[in-house]
């Protein structure tokens, strides 16, 4: 009775799964998941490889029981295919339920393998199923970030994560090799969002959460790390769009480098990125810093390159805070040569002439800190003799730019900046600096709105008013507006 | 020598047993020796001292004991640096002898002599005084005792040898209590002769009397009674006589007075006094009245136009100096209110009467401008009626309104002149006198001068305004919400809108009702909102905004805090939305026209030159944020950016503050006009990019269009949408933008030429202009501008001031000299409050006294012991002498007897 029912049910479900209605599909997916998981548990599915060829041929010479099993197994595989297709469905709810169902099947298959158990424990994990899921997730046509964030729940499990990593590597290698290294933006985004979601526990003892009881390589942290490393390196060796570079570099130091077994393998990538220039260079700094600091990387001309990174755009990019945080770190060493520090101070001061007030509030204490750390730099703010500015802005080598012979007139200029805080900060070079360094970490993230708020929130008893009577809109204040524009 | 022995004796006697022994003996011995002893006791030292004068003693080094001082305190005089121990000891000794010794001698005796003579022991009293006093006392005693029966015994009191009683008789006044005086007849002698002495009389009061004596006494009593009666009678008679004589004299006086009037023509003195009395009162009254009368108050001096001008100039100079101080970032207190004149009746509610009221009485060329005053009065009345009741028919209110406006303009013009004039004082005075002469002539002149005045003829305006007035009511209720205000102003011409706002403001003036202030404050916010809406409409109704500006200004002057709040909230919202968009997208579109208008209005209402201002500082930040974060993607964006640049320049014109974003944007705008972007000698700052789309926005498509281009000002609405149909129009717009940009660059050059890094700041612009824009064909006007800018950049002297740290005040070395603190109370710490101090003082005094007393007692005992010892010794020596005498006599007796015996035996 039961067998007969299940056969019918499986047919019906298969039909419904193809239906158009979202609700029906979701319900069918749920029913499928229940039905086949029970079957998997009961081991009512055919074991071993599915015979190729016509369905009818496969049934020849089998008992009724075996026929039923084989039949159910065929239904199962077609159902899985259907579900995998549903992962590309337009509706998120369908996708989500399909994904959950597939993962449930994966779990069931892992517990009760459909294939014959080989000598290797390795195969007890349903890799093919997972590969299919990953392939669909890294779709080339749709943005799957929502589904991927749902998938993250399964990535918590060590074995799933491990096999997903290898599947990603395979998938990426396959796809990009096919396209000769040129990928679609959607795919890059999907790959990145899936990969950036993967994080490996830092300790061996952290490997506890398994989907299926595992032994062997997938239990070792080093193996995980290696897989992680391979995955990333496999991805990074292709030519990526610049925003992808930025995205990777943003998370590189925090969530990639610590999980690699050999972080030094990233050197090539980082130096290449550092040489690109602009914002990417700024971001590469962070990863380089980790390598220099923790992995003994010797980077020739590091400071020269850092010096050349200083351009007017530094003050306007989004990663300004990160850059100045790192620059502060790099320049905090007291063993730096004097000419270098002076060059940095002078260049920053020169650039400050084009900076917005929020950046100025970082740069001015920054320069003051430099002078504090290297008291010999005081000649920059105290030089009774010179009247010419010998500094060479275009010179790329900080040793040749003659910054030490110059003075920081730019800061003197900024003393007449329109914003009171900046003017005050710039005024501090007039007096001998105090011993303590200014803490710039608080200033790094300050926005213009916060600056505005300070004045807006402040309540004053009397508000000074303009005493020149206003008569017309365009008059007053030197009539600049009135001269160039008219009403209407 | 003597002294020391005394002391030694004293020491020996201090034991108690010795003392008692001595005292027992001495009491016995005293009986017969007392007289001699003190005389004998006088020591040799005493004798010497007595003989010498005090001067000799003081100069005798053996007498003087110098008290060594521990510290020599400058300026302090010490009383006790030199002591005369000998003198003081002998003094004390003498004193003891006079007191203690006497007491001692008297000890144990039941009888003693008390010398009760007055002042016997008073050494201070001179002997003459003593005698006099004693005599007086004696007399007094005698008098007291006799007083009871003494009738007229007192000796006559005299004055210059004349009896006082006699003298009294000349007096008119009769003393009623002369009775005692009048008893006088019964003298002591008389009684003595009659009764044989007053002594008996006195004794009679005593208790025991014999029978005889009582009998005699009775008869005597009768006699006495008789005598008394007699004397009383006599006295009465005398009195009567006296009264009579007095009456007679009075009568005589009366008669004399009546005759006197006849004798002398002059009015008698008393009569005149009587007549004068009322007159005096009248005079007094008048004086008093005059005192309390209202005095003429000193009125304010009439001010000449020069004085008025000077006052005005001083006021403006003060405001200017305030502004400068704020610019330097110094805090100012309540001085910056720009209310021109505060009258004594001002309620500080911001109510300012119309400008006309400000004019005080003034002279013009020696003539009093009285007609002007009258005119003003009239208009004022009109004003009042219009403001409060609204009952007046269409009068000349419109004319007045218009007049007022003109006045305002004139004022405004004058002020500006004067402000500039303050920098050029030579030119100033002339201007001021010209603008402030209130005669019509001067104002018309003024009007001719100002070309910016509306060119409509007066009649036209009048007609127009009257027509408008016919429709408008005169009072308006203050709008409760923004929609109310909108309903109020909707559909009116801009001029009428202004009128409506002005009337609303007047009819809801803060001084008229309690809630009005709040209403008007709210209305300011609504008005701001309305202006924003006007600016966002398409097409923007900026003319209406323009008309509302004076009203906004006046309301802002009334409620600075509320205006500040309203503006702040606008910037807060704008800044917040900008920040949010930035976070999401990374860039923001240029601010809309309403924000540009708000920024401009901010510049009009609040001082932009302050170092820190609650409104203008955020506004500047907003401009800077917009100039750095808004990517330029279209010609409209360029126009918006240029408007912002204009505003930025306006904001910093006065204070000459450095606005880096402004230079960046101008350089970027010029970069947009560069055709060939292959080799740039400069870097452009975000939001501009060296290359890419939208980086050729201002490149001319056809260089031919240069020829047909003429400079004209752009409409503000060009920031929103441009109607540029042909490519030529487009080019023209581009050229206008470039010319605006160049003009702004020129202004910036002038503003910032004093900055130390001037050349660095303008280097990109310089390269742009000299290398990139030169190659292009620009209209002549722009070429000229370019030349000027390059000249001013190149011509800026590279005078860099030397960068030197401010000299720090050297930190002084640690000094080890003691810190000198003035100690006000020496010695032990005294109690802090008054009671404790008093207690402490008393304790101290007590201690001192106690010690002194102890010392005195010791000295007394020592003295006594000494005395006793001398007594004993004297007694012993006396006995020895007597014994010796006896022995002597006995020896002589024996000798005589032996001689006799020898003689006998011979």
UniProtKB/TrEMBL annotation, chain A:
Transmembrane keyword on record: yes
Gene Ontology terms describing biological process: ribosome biogenesis
Keywords (A to Z) from UniProt: Membrane, Transmembrane, Transmembrane helix
Stretches assigned to the CCAAT-binding factor domain: 281-426
GO cellular component: Noc4p-Nop14p complex; nuclear membrane; small-subunit processome
Subcellular location: Nucleus membrane
Topology class, membrane: Multi-pass membrane protein
Transmembrane segments: 269-292, 323-345, 351-371
Record-stated family: Belongs to the CBF/MAK21 family.
Protein name per UniProt: CCAAT-binding factor domain-containing protein
Automatic annotation (TrEMBL), chain B:
Main localization (coarse): nucleus
UniProt cross-references to Pfam families, sorted A to Z: Nop14
Organism of derivation: Gasterosteus aculeatus aculeatus (three-spined stickleback)
Protein name: NOP14 nucleolar protein homolog (yeast)
One Gene Ontology cellular component: Noc4p-Nop14p complex
Family as reported in the entry's similarity comment: Belongs to the NOP14 family.
Compositionally biased residues, Basic and acidic residues: 212-250, 294-329, 343-360
Record-level GO BP terms: maturation of SSU-rRNA
Coiled-coil segments on the chain, per record: none
Taxonomic lineage: Eukaryota, Metazoa, Chordata, Craniata, Vertebrata
Subcellular location(s) of the protein: Nucleus, Nucleolus
Keyword annotations of the record: Nucleus, Ribosome biogenesis, rRNA processing
């Amino acid at each position: 009775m039961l067998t007969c029912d299940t056969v019918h049910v499986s047919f019906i479900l298969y039909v419904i799964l193809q239906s158009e209605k979202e609700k029906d599909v979701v319900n069918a997916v749920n029913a499928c998941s229940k039905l086949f998981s029970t079957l998997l548990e009961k081991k009512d599915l055919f074991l071993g490889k599915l015979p190729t060829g016509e369905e009818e041929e496969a049934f020849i010479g089998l008992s009724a029981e075996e026929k039923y099993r084989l039949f159910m197994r065929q239904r199962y595989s077609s159902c899985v295919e259907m579900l995998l297709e549903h992962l590309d469905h337009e509706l998120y709810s369908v996708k989500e339920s399909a994904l959950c169902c597939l993962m449930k099947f994966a779990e069931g298959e892992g517990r009760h393998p459909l294939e014959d158990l080989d000598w290797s424990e390795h195969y007890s994990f349903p890799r093919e199923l997972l590969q299919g899921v990953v392939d669909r997730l890294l779709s080339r046509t749709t943005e799957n970030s929502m589904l991927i964030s749902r998938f993250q729940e399964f990535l918590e499990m060590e074995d799933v994560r491990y096999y997903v990593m290898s599947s990603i590597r395979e998938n990426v290698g396959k796809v990009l090799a096919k396209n000769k290294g040129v990928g679609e933006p959607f795919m890059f985004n999907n790959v990145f969002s899936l990969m950036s979601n993967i994080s490996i526990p830092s300790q061996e003892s952290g490997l506890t959460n398994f989907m299926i009881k595992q032994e062997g390589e997938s239990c070792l942290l080093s193996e995980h790390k290696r897989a992680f490393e391979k995955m990333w390196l496999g991805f990074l060796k292709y030519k990526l769009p610049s925003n992808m570079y930025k995205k990777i570099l943003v998370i590189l130091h925090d969530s990639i480098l610590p999980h690699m077994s050999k972080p030094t393998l990233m050197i090539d990538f980082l130096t290449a990125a550092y040489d690109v220039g602009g914002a990417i260079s700024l971001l590469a700094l962070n990863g380089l810093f980790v390598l220099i600091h923790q992995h003994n990387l010797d980077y020739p001309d590091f400071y020269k390159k850092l010096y050349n990174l200083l351009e007017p755009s530094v003050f306007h990019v989004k990663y300004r805070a990160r850059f100045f945080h790192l620059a502060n770190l790099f320049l905090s060493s007291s063993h730096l040569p004097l000419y270098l520090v002076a060059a940095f101070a002078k260049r920053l001061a020169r650039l400050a002439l084009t900076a917005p007030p929020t950046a100025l509030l970082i740069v001015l204490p920054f320069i003051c800190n430099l002078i504090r750390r290297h008291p010999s730099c005081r000649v920059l703010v105290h030089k009774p003799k010179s009247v010419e500015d010998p500094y060479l802005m275009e010179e790329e080598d900080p040793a040749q730019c003659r910054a030490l012979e110059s003075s920081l007139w730019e800061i003197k200029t900024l003393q007449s900046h329109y914003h009171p805080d900046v003017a005050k900060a710039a005024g501090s070079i007039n007096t001998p600096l105090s011993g303590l360094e200014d803490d710039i970490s608080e200033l790094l993230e300050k926005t213009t709105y916060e600056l505005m708020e300070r004045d807006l929130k402040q309540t004053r008893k009397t508000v000074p008013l303009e005493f020149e009577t206003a008569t017309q809109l365009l008059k007053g204040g030197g009539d600049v507006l009135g001269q160039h524009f008219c009403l209407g | 020598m003597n002294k020391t022995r005394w002391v030694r004796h004293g020491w020996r006697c201090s034991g108690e047993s010795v003392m008692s022994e001595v005292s027992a003996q001495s009491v016995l011995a005293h009986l017969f020796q007392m007289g001699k002893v003190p005389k004998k006791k006088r020591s040799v030292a005493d004798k010497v001292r007595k003989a010498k004068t005090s001067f000799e003693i003081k100069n005798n080094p053996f007498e003087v004991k110098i008290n060594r001082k521990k510290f020599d305190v400058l300026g302090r005089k010490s009383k006790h640096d030199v002591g005369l121990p000998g003198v003081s000891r002998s003094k004390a000794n003498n004193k003891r002898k006079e007191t203690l010794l006497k007491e001692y001698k008297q000890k144990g005796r039941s009888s003693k002599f008390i010398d009760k003579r007055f002042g016997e022991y008073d050494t201070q009293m001179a002997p003459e005084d003593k005698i006099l006093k004693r005599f007086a006392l004696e007399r007094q005693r005698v008098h007291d005792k006799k007083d009871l029966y003494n009738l007229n015994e007192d000796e006559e009191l005299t004055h210059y040898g004349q009896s006082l009683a006699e003298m009294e008789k000349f007096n008119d006044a009769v003393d009623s209590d002369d009775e005692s005086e009048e008893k006088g007849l019964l003298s002591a002698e008389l009684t003595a002769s009659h009764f044989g002495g007053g002594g008996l009389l006195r004794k009679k009061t005593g208790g025991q009397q014999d029978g005889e004596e009582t009998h005699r006494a009775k008869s005597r009593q009768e006699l006495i009674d008789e005598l008394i009666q007699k004397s009383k009678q006599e006295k009465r008679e005398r009195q009567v006589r006296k009264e009579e004589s007095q009456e007679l004299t009075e009568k005589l006086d009366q008669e004399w007075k009546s005759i006197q009037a006849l004798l002398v023509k002059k009015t008698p003195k008393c009569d005149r006094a009587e007549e004068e009395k009322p007159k005096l009162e009248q005079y007094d009254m008048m004086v008093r009245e005059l005192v309390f009368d209202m005095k003429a108050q000193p009125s304010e001096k009439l001010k000449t136009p020069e004085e008025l001008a000077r006052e005005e100039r001083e006021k403006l100079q003060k405001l200017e100096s305030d502004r400068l101080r704020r610019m330097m970032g110094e805090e100012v207190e309540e001085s910056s209110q720009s209310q021109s004149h505060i009258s004594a009746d001002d309620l500080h509610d911001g109510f300012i009467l119309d400008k006309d009221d400000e004019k005080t009485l003034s002279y013009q060329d020696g003539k009093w401008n009285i007609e002007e005053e009258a005119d003003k009065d009239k208009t004022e009345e009109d004003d009042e009626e219009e403001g409060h009741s609204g009952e007046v028919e269409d009068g000349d209110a419109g004319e007045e309104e218009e007049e007022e406006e003109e006045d305002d303009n004139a004022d405004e013009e004058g002020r500006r002149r004067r402000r500039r004039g303050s920098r050029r004082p030579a030119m100033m005075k002339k201007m001021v006198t010209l603008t402030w002469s209130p005669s019509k002539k001067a104002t018309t002149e003024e009007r001719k001068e100002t070309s910016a005045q509306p060119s409509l003829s007066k009649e036209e305006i009048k007609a127009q305004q009257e027509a408008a007035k016919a429709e408008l009511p005169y009072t308006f209720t203050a709008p409760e919400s923004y929609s109310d205000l909108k309903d109020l102003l909707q559909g009116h011409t801009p001029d009428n809108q202004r009128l409506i706002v002005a009337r609303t403001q007047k009819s809801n003036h803060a001084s008229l009702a309690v809630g009005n202030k709040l209403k008007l404050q709210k209305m300011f916010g609504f008005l701001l909102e309305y202006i924003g809406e006007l600016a966002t409409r398409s097409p923007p109704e900026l003319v209406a905004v323009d008309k509302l500006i004076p009203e906004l200004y006046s309301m802002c002057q009334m409620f600075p805090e509320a205006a500040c709040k309203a503006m702040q909230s606008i910037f807060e919202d704008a800044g917040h939305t900008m920040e949010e968009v930035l976070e999401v997208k990374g860039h923001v579109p240029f601010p809309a026209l309403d924000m540009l208008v708000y920024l401009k209005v901010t510049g009009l209402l609040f001082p932009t030159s302050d170092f820190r201002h609650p409104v203008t500082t955020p506004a500047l930040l907003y401009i800077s944020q917009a100039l750095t974060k808004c990517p330029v993607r279209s010609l409209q964006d360029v126009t918006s950016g240029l408007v912002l640049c204009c505003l930025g320049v306006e904001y910093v014109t006065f204070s000459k503050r450095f606005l880096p974003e402004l230079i960046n944007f101008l350089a970027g705008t010029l970069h947009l006009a560069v055709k060939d972007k292959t080799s740039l000698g400069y870097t452009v700052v975000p939001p501009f990019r060296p290359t890419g789309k939208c980086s050729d926005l201002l490149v001319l498509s056809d260089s031919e269009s240069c020829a047909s281009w003429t400079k004209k000002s752009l409409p503000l609405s060009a920031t929103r949408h441009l109607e540029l149909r042909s490519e030529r129009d487009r080019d023209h717009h581009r050229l206008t933008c470039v010319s605006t940009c160049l003009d702004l660059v020129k202004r910036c050059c002038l503003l910032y030429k004093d900055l130390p890094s001037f050349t660095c700041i303008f280097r990109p612009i310089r390269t742009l202009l000299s290398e990139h824009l030169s190659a292009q064909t620009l209209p002549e006007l722009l070429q000229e501008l370019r030349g000027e800018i390059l000249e001013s950049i190149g011509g800026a002297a590279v005078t860099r001031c030397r960068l030197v740290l401010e000299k720090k005040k050297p930190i002084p070395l640690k000094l080890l000299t003691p810190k000198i603190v003035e100690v006000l109370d020496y010695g032990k710490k005294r109690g802090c409050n008054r009671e404790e101090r008093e207690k402490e003082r008393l304790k101290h005094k007590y201690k001192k006294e106690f010690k002194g007393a102890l010392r005195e007692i010791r000295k007394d005992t020592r003295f006594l012991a000494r005395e006793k010892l001398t007594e004993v010794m004297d007694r012993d020596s006396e006995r020895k002498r007597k014994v010796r005498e006896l022995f002597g006599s006995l020896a002589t007796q024996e000798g005589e007897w032996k001689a006799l015996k020898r003689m006998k035996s011979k």
